[in-house]
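Subject: design request, 388 residues
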């Protein structure tokens, strides 16, 4: 997602520099990719590692980024800094750059941390770690000039829990993705390659961790074993992968297929020839999450079947788009009933999938995200000029 917004700025004539973590090489170096300079900073592993190691790596990240910037870009003035969450620790880098160059800072807010770690039991509220990261979060919001939130629910949450914040900073910046060429011929050979021929394929693509509460998916899959043609295809990796595989064996579930790795160029082609896309959110969340894997499903035009928490406004987006069915996590009967609605009606599946694709085209492309960011930058400049 962040690669595409970088490309969008580059295509619109901006001079773009990227800092990215890299734990595969033994050194920090600059690579030029598609005309964009990318400073790949040697770091510790950040993905698919235990939370303790991930936390330590994120604590070191701002120091590693600052050292790399000072070494490779000591004299370049940056006008605009764009940074996502996670991790919130990068605020230490952005604050220094703002002070040094009088830059503007645009925050793409995705994970609301540390509260999401509290919700999942990774951290105790008001404990040492929580208080440390909470101070970082407050610093992050105060340092940002503009904050793009995933949804209206995200904005309301930030407003309610951060009364000190200038609410004029906040606006909706939905998740985004490059438009998939839906006109090209579907590659049904992939069904043969992944042993999915003559199957009704329910796909879950992306990270598999505690936040996804895949226990709900396992219960659904087991209840669907009465349908001999149904297979649940889990694409991706995560720290809970071993536990997931053990649970599948323990529960005697025979209709789940796991693909841990898949060529990047095949990923969306494979999802396109699936029948239903799964969303699963942990019931303990108190923050409104908008799962980014929705982009893949909407983009290729397959309907969504979602199990969600009661804090998210994701269901409102799904209803607005008329792109799928949802139920609350733990309500296994409702999850199964919604599955049956999609399984038993091919015409309805096709229409619901088409609705998602239409919503994607209107709201979820990098071009739209870029236009929103530029509009916010320009409107704030005009407001300040009028009041000077």
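Subject: RE: design request

Done. Sequence follows.
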């Amino acid at each position: 997602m962040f690669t595409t917004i970088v490309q969008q700025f580059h295509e619109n004539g901006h001079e773009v520099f990227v800092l990215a973590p890299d734990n595969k090489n033994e050194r920090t170096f600059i690579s030029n990719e598609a005309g964009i300079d990318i400073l790949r900073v040697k770091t510790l592993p950040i993905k698919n590692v235990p939370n303790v190691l991930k936390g330590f790596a994120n604590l070191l990240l701002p120091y590693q980024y600052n050292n790399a910037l000072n070494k490779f870009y000591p004299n370049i003035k940056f006008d605009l800094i764009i940074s996502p969450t996670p991790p919130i620790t990068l605020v230490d880098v952005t604050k220094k750059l703002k002070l040094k160059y009088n830059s503007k800072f645009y925050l793409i807010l995705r994970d609301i941390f540390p509260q999401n770690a509290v919700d999942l039991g990774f951290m105790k509220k008001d404990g040492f770690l929580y208080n440390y990261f909470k101070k970082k979060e407050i610093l992050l919001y105060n340092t940002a000039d503009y904050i793009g939130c995933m949804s209206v629910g995200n904005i309301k949450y930030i407003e309610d829990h951060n009364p000190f914040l200038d609410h004029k900073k906040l606006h909706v910046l939905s998740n985004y993705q490059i438009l998939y060429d839906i006109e090209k011929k579907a590659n049904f050979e992939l069904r043969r390659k992944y042993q999915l021929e003559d199957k009704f394929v329910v796909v879950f693509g992306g990270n598999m961790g505690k936040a996804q509460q895949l226990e709900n998916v396992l219960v659904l899959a087991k209840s669907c074993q009465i349908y001999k043609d149904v297979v649940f295809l889990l694409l991706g990796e995560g720290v809970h992968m071993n536990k997931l595989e053990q649970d599948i064996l323990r529960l005697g579930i025979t209709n789940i297929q796991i693909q841990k790795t898949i060529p990047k160029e095949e990923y969306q082609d494979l999802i396109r020839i699936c029948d239903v896309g799964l969303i699963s959110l942990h019931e303990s969340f108190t923050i409104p999450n908008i799962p980014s894997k929705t982009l893949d499903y909407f983009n290729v035009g397959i309907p969504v079947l979602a199990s969600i928490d009661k804090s998210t406004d994701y269901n409102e987006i799904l209803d607005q788009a008329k792109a799928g069915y949802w139920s609350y996590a733990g309500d296994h009967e409702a999850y199964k009933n919604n599955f049956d609605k999609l399984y038993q009606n091919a015409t309805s599946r096709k229409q619901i999938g088409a609705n998602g694709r239409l919503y994607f085209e209107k709201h979820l492309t990098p071009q739209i995200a870029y236009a929103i960011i530029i509009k916010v930058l320009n409107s704030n400049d005009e407001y300040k000029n009028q009041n000077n």
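The two ends are 37 Å apart (CA to CA).
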